[in-house]
Design a protein that fits this description.
Acyl-CoA synthetase (AMP-forming)/AMP-acid ligase II; GMP Synthetase, Chain A, domain 3; 534 residues; AMP-binding_CS; AMP-dep_synth/lig_dom; ligase; alpha/beta; Rossmann fold; nine-stranded mixed sheet
Length: 534
């Protein structure tokens, strides 16, 4: 007897969870450390949190902060769906954030309650209701309460804030559940028993993993910390089929050799998100994981859940792919008109579902969200087949004299150097050009500027080559895995204190950093470092 497929309808997150828990109560949705969460328990805890919040005076539309650490994924997902089942709006946050950042997000969102995990004691909160782990776990079993409607707001997720104050992005239930269906259910990652990630709570990537746990055939395996050896060992021990990382993790996995030391033959999907995956890194992953499909995903907190998806192909190594799940892409000129194939312009993405918006910022909303389209803040172009290629973040393009330099292109060329593990490129003030490219490098040995420029001579034009470099132990990143370039620019400020420079680069007390000037680049000689060796 065949199952009749009903047309898709807008769903709420609580309804999606309740339907799956009813059909598969024993399915392990989340596995972290020694703990597991099956769907039946997830639904029961959700109902308890929802009823408890209602009894405590939380009403439909109230904002509730969720502050959890990397070890708290099981507690977090239950609190998240409990808040939504109560008809309230979740504000996910991570204990990795600074106390001032958490205070800002709570105040800006208008949160009246806070649910938190075991590591949140140091965070102050001006809220009417505050529940810690014991309060949440002690809530009694309860019947479902009247839930939200598909058009009601479900969450306020704050952007990474790499170029300014984080913005609160509001998503309705219909946005979060877009593409999901109940009859028959849609189960992604059907080739896997488990999918593995190490994304922080409070990020767009982390929220994507939460919804994978809710809807996918595979269960979530999450680790509180990322280390290449530990990560590869988990793949081997659990025979993981799907793996999700940010590019920095992929680079560490390759550079460490961990993929070679462990049996990773179970991996059939290796996905990278949050930033463009350098082509050399993608090729290295394809060689290290011959049985896996390497996929690059592209979206933003504002555009989600719409995204592009690109299976790595040597014919298009730098492509980010086509829009999927009913979305669309376009590249526009300054007048808002579509650019022809191959012509660079602003990247826009359209969602087939309910669009998102900024919280209490009509001006920014009107600039970024237009008639279902989302401005991505990136510069790129579409090829003749509609594949997207990024040139740069709009804010990162270096206007050097009469030329524009793509930091993504320079970083990709630097990653081809066998002794450069990671690279970040940015513009520095130049008295002649206005801005000149500079690079922060994580390397296996000390590299001189002249050596780097010789390597790049056949790969980049002269104006694209870094005029200054600095060596660091690691690149400073925010919780979403994106490089905070402002902290790297500070390394070239001759007026800064050495201690501040060390913090900005996250170098160790015994590491060395070297910087070279544009004048020395012209002569092929190295200048003295503008701050003392550490």
């Amino acid at each position: 007897m065949s199952t009749r497929r009903l047309p898709p309808v807008a769903l709420t997150v609580p309804r999606l969870l309740a339907a799956r828990a009813d059909a598969e109560p024993a399915h392990i949705a989340v596995h972290q450390g020694g703990g597991t969460l099956d769907l039946g328990t997830w639904q029961a805890r959700t109902q308890a949190v929802a009823a408890g919040l209602r009894a405590a005076g939380v009403r439909t539309g109230d904002r509730v902060g969720l502050l959890y650490g990397a070890r708290d994924w099981i507690a977090y997902v239950c609190s998240y769906t409990g808040v939504l089942a109560a008809g309230a709006v979740a504000v996910p946050m991570s204990t990795r954030a600074a106390p001032d950042e958490v205070a800002y997000m709570l105040e800006h969102s208008g949160a009246t309650a806070l649910l938190h995990g075991q590591d949140a004691g140091r965070f102050a909160a001006r809220v009417r209701l505050r529940w810690g782990p014991g309060d949440v776990e002690g809530l009694p079993a309860a019947a479902p309460v009247d839930g939200p409607r598909p058009g009601d707001p479900a969450q306020i997720l704050y952007t990474s804030g790499t170029t300014g104050r984080p913005k609160g992005v509001v998503a309705a239930h219909a946005n979060l559940t877009h593409g999901a269906r109940l009859n028959p259910p849609l189960r992604t990652l059907a080739h896997s028993r488990q999918f593995l990630h190490a994304f922080p709570i409070g990020t767009n990537a982390g929220q994507t993993m939460l919804f994978n746990a809710l809807t996918a055939q595979a269960g979530m395996l999450v680790t509180a910390r990322f280390g290449p050896e530990h990560f590869a060992r988990l793949i081997e021990q659990q025979a993981v089929g799907s793996v999700f990382v940010v590019p920095a993790m992929a680079i560490e996995l390759l550079a460490s050799g961990a993929l070679d030391r462990h049996d990773t033959s179970s991996v059939v999907l290796f996905g990278s998100t949050a930033a463009a995956l350098p082509p050399t890194v993608a090729a290295g992953l394809a060689a290290a994981l011959p049985a896996a499909t390497i996929v690059n995903y592209y979206t933003s907190t504002e555009a989600a859940p719409t995204q592009t998806s690109m299976i790595f192909s040597p014919e298009r190594p730098a492509a980010l792919g086509l829009a999927v799940a009913g979305g669309a892409l376009r590249v526009c000129d300054e007048a808002g008109l579509a650019c022809p194939a191959g012509v660079t312009g602003e990247v826009w993405m359209r969602s087939a579902g309910a669009p998102r918006s900024y919280l209490d910022d009509d001006s920014a909303t009107s600039q970024v969200f237009r008639a279902g389209w989302t401005r991505m803040g990136d510069i790129g172009y579409l090829d003749a087949d509609g594949y997207l290629f990024l040139v740069d973040r709009e804010s990162d393009v270096i206007k050097s004299g009469a030329d524009k330099v793509s930091t993504i292109a320079v970083e990709a060329a630097l990653h081809e150097h066998p002794e450069i593990v990671e690279a970040s490129v940015f513009g520095l003030p130049d008295p002649v050009l206005g801005l000149a490219p500079a690079a922060a490098l994580v390397t296996t040995r000390e590299l001189r500027l002249a050596e780097v420029r010789r390597f790049l001579a056949t790969r980049l034009a002269g104006h694209e080559q870094p005029s200054r470099i600095v060596r660091v132990d690691e690149l400073p990143r925010n919780a979403g895995g994106k490089v905070v370039k402002s902290r790297l620019r500070a390394l070239f400020d001759p007026a800064r204190e050495p201690a501040a420079a060390s913090a900005a680069s996250r170098t160790s007390a015994t590491s060395s950093a070297s910087a070279t000037s544009s004048a020395s680049a012209a002569s092929g000689e190295e200048a003295a470092s503008p701050w003392p060796k550490q």
